[in-house]
TrEMBL record:
InterPro entries associated with the record: Arg-tRNA-ligase, Arg-tRNA-synth_N, Arg-tRNA-synth_N_sf, ArgRS_core, DALR_anticod-bd, Rossmann-like_a/b/a_fold, tRNAsynth_Ia_anticodon-bd
Domain DALR anticodon binding: 482-615
Species name: Candidatus Uhrbacteria bacterium RIFOXYC2_FULL_47_19
Family: Belongs to the class-I aminoacyl-tRNA synthetase family.
Keyword terms, alphabetized: Aminoacyl-tRNA synthetase, ATP-binding, Ligase, Nucleotide-binding, Protein biosynthesis
Domain called Arginyl tRNA synthetase N-terminal: residue spans: 27-115
BP-aspect Gene Ontology terms: arginyl-tRNA aminoacylation
Entry protein name: Arginine--tRNA ligase
Keyword Transmembrane helix found: no
Gene Ontology cellular-component terms listed: cytoplasm
A Pfam family of this chain: tRNA-synt_1d
RNA sequence: GCGCUCGUAGCUCAGUUGGAUAGAGCAACUGCCUUCUAAGCAGUAGGUCGCACGUUCGAGUCGUGCCGGGCGCACCA
């Protein structure tokens, strides 16, 4: 464990019951290891570099009936020159119970630790009472990060592929904030470039004067874009016309600019509506159009300074020495590219927001090489800031890749409407007495939960094959399953509030195994936040070490935890009666219901999902 | 061709960085609503972890080779 990690643990987890239990176990084990008990081993001596064990050797047993934490003794066996089983036995036999940890038992090469049911449960409830809504959050040293996500293009439709970006972005922002970071979320919208020129060219030539229906703007423009792509593919000579349109736009031609502004606004209005609908808030909207012309200027300066060179009529930077091939900065027809604008954007971000430590770009992994080139190019021109490409894999359909160019997309609007139809029907079946507004609100919360969870439940690095029918599920490993567990906890609390109960002032009575199990799961929330947000704030931010880096940094870990927590809440709901027992038990159990409710609510929040009180 | 990546139950995916008997969800089958919301719960069935070697106390996990997908490799974004 590095110093940095220890620091972080001390800043955050030191104040939780689980962390305290780990500290106690390590302390107890170190006492045994540093005594003379083990010196009689075949080696006879302790390795000189052995100092003490730390919390990272503690794991979860495969079966929770074995214990609450365990420690495999294989690496210790090497140090002491004894068999793992022998070490485990010595550690277990000499373990003295602590306030939170009742016992240790050796099973083969493992030591399994059992928490004190009452003390640990009380400690978790105490954490919750102290932290409240901030349970699971860290207050560690502030680091300032700019997170760019939400980069749809105007003049195209927003489709389900964009949702993965938006939802990962939203969750990453919330995770980093929970980890105590100062996060600036920004959006970067592609409102210029070849696709826009192509669309406007075809609009003017074949659809001049036509207007989209309200709410159909993206679909309307997207269809024209698809048509344009088809026509240009059929007749290559049309490329010149499209290029001329882009040149006209980039040089500020009045008529084309007016058409661009009007159609652009259609798209922007639609996008803003979608961002708002799914809960994505940005501190700043960057547009490609605002960095295009300064970007071109920058590239020409690089050419003059000899940092860039001409090649086949285009301006490039040769990155062969970094094994990154050739990086194209400006097209041979003088028009801009992604790179032209991104070089400028990077500088603009750091000049607008002061004291930024890191800039994170959440973009799909097909652009991994591009970003490596971009970061290398920036470094070469003296821009030495921490830049990270957080790559996720693409959303495809069973038939193959979704592409606006080909026109085979499932739009966000279609997906949402289909989900809403189903969710409103399901809600109505359960609550025929609800009015329309209430039905609609709950259905929307469920739909949002289902959409977001579906996009986050899987490792971001793996592709999602989108199936509309499967995505319509509200059962099993889904958002609504978790939301439902939350609603059940709320329902108990609501009923309790109506009951006129005599509350016992202190928590009294014995915590049962079921009660403990629920709180044991709740206690993992801070640890989950720590692990899931650890990636971008520690170690090397090197895209070449992607697996190691992103392995930890992944909302899917939170999704998995959240689902487990919901299962434990349902276990509790099934096994432990709350309202029908005596005052003492009821008070204690209501505290646990409250703990489950809060943990579920916080965990869902990290995924960008609202927790309904009823559904 | 070069580079990256993936291959685990019928389907969609986990597998805590090499550790205990490979786990969930869906679909299938059997049950459970006079008992805090059945968007739930209990149970059954389902596996040669693509194939073959290798590394070691131990491999789904690491290495090499093969087979089979996906993505990228200068004027698209």
């Amino acid at each position: 464990m590095t110093t940095e990690d220890t620091q972080k643990f001390e800043n955050g987890e030191a104040d939780t019951a689980l962390h305290q239990a780990k500290v106690e176990i390590c302390h107890a084990m170190n006492n045994v290891l540093q005594s003379n008990i083990l010196r009689g081993g075949s080696k006879g001596e302790i390795d000189s570099d052995f100092s003490s064990i730390t919390e990272d050797i503690l794991e979860l047993p495969p079966d929770r009936s074995l214990g609450d934490l365990c420690s495999p003794c294989f690496s210790l066996a090497k140090y002491f020159g004894q068999s793992p089983a022998a070490i485990a036995k010595v550690l277990a036999d000499n373990f003295k119970s602590t306030s939170l940890v009742a016992s240790a038992q050796a099973v083969g090469p493992y030591v399994n630790f059992k928490f004190d049911r009452n003390n640990f449960s009380r400690a978790v409830l105490k954490d919750l009472a102290r932290d409240g809504e901030r349970y699971g959050n860290y207050s560690g040293h502030a680091e300032r990060l700019i997170v760019e996500y939400g980069q749809p293009n105007t003049h195209k439709e927003v489709h389900v592929g964009h949702l993965r970006n938006l939802f990962i972005g939203l969750s990453v922002v919330r995770l980093l904030q929970a980890a105590g970071k100062d996060v600036i979320p920004v959006s970067y919208i592609g409102d210029v470039g070849a696709h826009v020129s192509k669309c406007l060219w075809a609009y003017k030539k074949f659809h001049d004067g036509e207007r989209p229906e309200l709410g159909q703007e993206g679909k309307f423009l997207g269809a024209i874009y698809t048509e344009a792509t088809r026509r240009v593919e059929e007749d290559e000579s049309l490329k010149t016309e499209v290029s001329a349109v882009q040149q006209a736009l980039e040089s500020g031609d009045q008529d084309w600019t007016a058409l661009w502004q009007e159609t652009r606004q259609w798209s922007l209005d639609e996008m803003q509506g979608i961002f708002k609908e799914v809960g994505c808030d940005f501190d700043r909207f960057y547009y490609e159009s605002e960095v295009e012309s300064p970007g071109k200027k920058l590239v020409r300066e690089l050419l003059e300074q000899g940092q860039a060179e001409m090649s086949q009529g285009a301006i490039i930077m040769n990155l062969e020495s970094e094994d990154l091939g050739v990086f194209l900065l400006l097209k041979s027809d003088g028009n801009s590219l992604y790179a032209t604008k991104d070089l400028e954007l990077a500088q603009l971000k750091f000049s607008e927001f002061k004291d930024i430590d890191t800039s994170i770009h959440i973009v799909d992994n097909r652009q991994s090489l591009y970003f490596r080139q971009l970061f290398a190019a920036l470094k070469r021109i003296g821009f030495d800031k921490r830049m990270v490409h957080l790559a996720y894999d693409f959303v495809t359909l069973k038939e193959g890749a979704m592409s606006s160019r080909k026109g085979n997309v499932i739009t966000y609007a279609e997906f949402r409407d289909e989900m809403m139809r189903l969710a409103e029907k399901e809600t109505l079946d359960r609550h025929p007495d609800w009015d329309k507004k209430r039905l609609h609100e709950v259905a929307w919360t469920v739909v949002e939960g289902a959409m977001k969870f579906a996009m986050l439940r899987q490792d971001a690095e793996r592709p999602i094959v989108f199936d509309l029918q499967e995505s319509l599920a509200f059962e099993g490993f889904t958002g609504p399953y978790v939301q439902y567990a939350h609603a059940r906890m709320c329902s108990i609390e609501t009923k309790a509030a109506e009951m006129d109960i005599d509350y016992v002032s202190d928590i009294t009575g014995e915590f049962t195994e079921e009660e403990f199990a629920a709180l044991r799961q709740v206690a993992d929330l801070p640890h989950t936040v720590f692990v899931a947000s650890a990636g971008p704030v520690r170690g090397e931010l090197d895209v070449n070490r992607k697996k190691r880096f992103f392995g930890n940094f992944n909302p899917s870990l939170v999704a998995q935890y959240t689902f487990d927590l919901a299962q434990r809440a349902n276990d509790f709901y099934r096994d432990v009666p709350v309202l029908s027992v005596d005052d003492q038990d009821r008070t204690r159990r209501l505290m646990i219901v409250g703990a489950l409710r809060l943990a579920l609510e916080r965990a869902l929040f990290l995924l960008g999902i609202d927790a309904p009180k009823e559904m």
